[in-house]
């Protein structure tokens, strides 16, 4: 009888000459430039009493980071917290030397509010335990920042019955400007672009959070002239091939898909093409460049398995081109391909495995260049394989 492990577990390691061209030149020994935290913007994140997490201490971030877990384990919340921190740093330095500078804390509160969109815009609804305070600590570059919201149960009421504001403690020490921070939500933006802008900018209606609105702003930036790195050129070639030698282009203030002289509106373009096509534009307009951070929520949505693997190749290549990448996934195809690439290139690749527990969501951390650890995605793949074996062999 075939062994279930023979299909699930890793096959013999490939030699360097067998590596795909996109990764061949980047292969290094384990002590090389792809070692932990090389070129990373974020190196650690600590969360206390935030949404699903009573306590989370995520050390040693990598250039490529994958987050897995069942539904309702806080994968998207982790991505959005990193995004809120990173984008607030971008905003702080944009405003710093202008006519209306804003403290980093104000930038962070605003970004977290419109990214998480808690009920009634109240941070009370972001707490894991509403009788405790919330704390966020992150190491960014060579600096460190923190944000501490005190226990809301300790609010005092003045003689007129008005709550006294609680002091919010924050630290912003040694933080330097960072590259653009970009978030890819599960839903594509190109078809609903004008509707998203109308509901958010004109009416300020919650629904589409800042990850959608900011991505639209990033996408609208016109491509710039000049050379881009050879690594990014190879990635653009890979993207174009994935799009069947087509591209997303602008025509009369609308975006279209072009291929072999034919033009298609966004409503007639495949969902997966729209999703992957956005990456090309962001590389060409320098929203994704060395020093950037890219956070992708469920990259597998609306993609055929072949395209999922191609996108995994693209994201891993971006991480080797100096862009720190985070991806939250449910896909065995995506997870397995990232693990193969980590082993192929001997690159430290972080896997965060989130599990529910009686005290909240807990996390375990692994390095995918070592092996694929047991996890629920792998377990379900093994279950399906065992069912095939049972049906084939009558057991």
Topology of this structure?
Blueprint: H1 4-8, H2 21-24, E1 42-50, E2 53-58, E3 64-69, H3 75-96, H4 104-116, E4 134-140, E5 143-149, E6 169-173, E7 181-184, H5 193-202, H6 210-220, H7 230-242, E8 247-251, E9 254-259, E10 262-265, H8 271-284, E11 293-297, H9 305-320, E12 324-328, H10 332-345, E13 349-357, E14 360-367, H11 376-393
Parallel strand pairs: 3-12, 3-13, 7-11, 11-12
Antiparallel strand pairs: 1-2, 1-4, 4-5, 5-6, 8-9, 9-10, 13-14
Helix pairs in contact: 3-4, 7-8, 7-9, 9-10
Question: What does this molecule look like?
Answer:
Residues 1-18 and 24-37 have low confidence and may be disordered. The strands form 3 sheets. Strands 7-11-12-3-13-14 form a 6-stranded mixed sheet, with helices on both faces. Strands 2-1-4-5-6 form a 5-stranded antiparallel sheet, with no helix packed on it. The protein has a 3-stranded antiparallel sheet with strand order 8-9-10. Helix 7 (230-242) packs antiparallel against helix 8 (271-284), helix 7 packs antiparallel against helix 9 (305-320) and helix 9 runs parallel beside helix 10. The chain has helices at residues 4-8, 21-24, 75-96, 104-116, 193-202, 210-220, 230-242, 271-284, 305-320, 332-345, 376-393; strands at 42-50, 53-58, 64-69, 134-140, 143-149, 169-173, 181-184, 247-251, 254-259, 262-265, 293-297, 324-328, 349-357, 360-367. The chain has a single domain (4-223, 289-393), classed as P-loop containing nucleotide triphosphate hydrolases (Rossmann fold), CATH 3.40.50.300. The chain has 11 helices and 14 strands. The protein is of the alpha/beta class and 395 residues long. It starts with a helix and ends with a helix. A hairpin with a 2-residue loop joins strand 9 (254-259) and strand 10 (262-265).
């Amino acid at each position: 009888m075939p062994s279930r492990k023979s299909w699930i577990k890793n096959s013999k390691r490939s030699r360097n000459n067998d590596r795909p061209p996109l990764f061949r030149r980047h292969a290094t020994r384990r002590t090389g430039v792809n070692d932990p935290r090389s070129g990373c913007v974020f190196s650690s994140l600590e969360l206390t009493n935030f949404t699903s997490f009573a306590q989370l201490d995520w050390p040693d971030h990598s250039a490529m980071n994958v987050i897995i877990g069942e539904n309702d384990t806080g994968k998207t919340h982790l991505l959005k917290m990193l995004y809120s921190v990173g984008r607030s740093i971008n905003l702080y330095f944009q405003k710093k030397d202008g006519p209306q500078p804003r403290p980093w804390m104000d930038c962070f509160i605003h970004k977290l509010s419109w990214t998480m969109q808690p009920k009634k815009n109240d941070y009370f609804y972001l707490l894991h335990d509403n009788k405790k305070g919330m704390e966020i600590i992150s190491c960014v570059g060579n600096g460190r920042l923190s944000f501490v919201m005190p226990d809301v149960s300790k609010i005092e009421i003045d003689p007129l019955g008005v709550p006294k504001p609680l002091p919010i403690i924050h630290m912003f020490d040694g933080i330097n400007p960072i590259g653009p921070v970009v978030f890819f939500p599960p839903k594509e933006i190109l078809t609903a672009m004008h509707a998203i802008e109308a509901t958010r900018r004109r009416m300020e209606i919650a629904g589409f959070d800042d990850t959608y609105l900011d991505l639209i702003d990033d996408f609208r930036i016109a491509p710039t002239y000049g050379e881009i790195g050879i690594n990014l050129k190879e990635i653009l070639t890979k993207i174009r091939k994935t799009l069947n030698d087509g591209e997303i282009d602008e025509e009369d203030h609308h975006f279209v898909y072009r291929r072999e002289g034919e033009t298609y509106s966004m409503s007639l373009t495949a969902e997966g093409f729209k999703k992957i096509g956005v990456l090309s534009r962001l590389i060409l307009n320098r929203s994704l460049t060395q020093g950037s951070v890219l956070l992708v929520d469920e990259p597998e949505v609306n993609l055929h398995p072949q395209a999922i693997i191609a996108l995994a190749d693209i994201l891993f290549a971006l991480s080797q081109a100096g862009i720190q990448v985070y991806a939250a996934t449910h896909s065995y195809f995506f997870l397995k391909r990232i693990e193969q690439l980590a082993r192929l290139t001997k690159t430290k690749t972080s896997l965060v495995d989130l599990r529910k527990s009686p005290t909240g969501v807990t996390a375990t951390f692994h390095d995918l260049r070592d092996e694929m650890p047991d996890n629920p995605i792998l377990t379900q793949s093994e279950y399906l394989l065992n069912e095939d074996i049972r049906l084939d062999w009558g057991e």
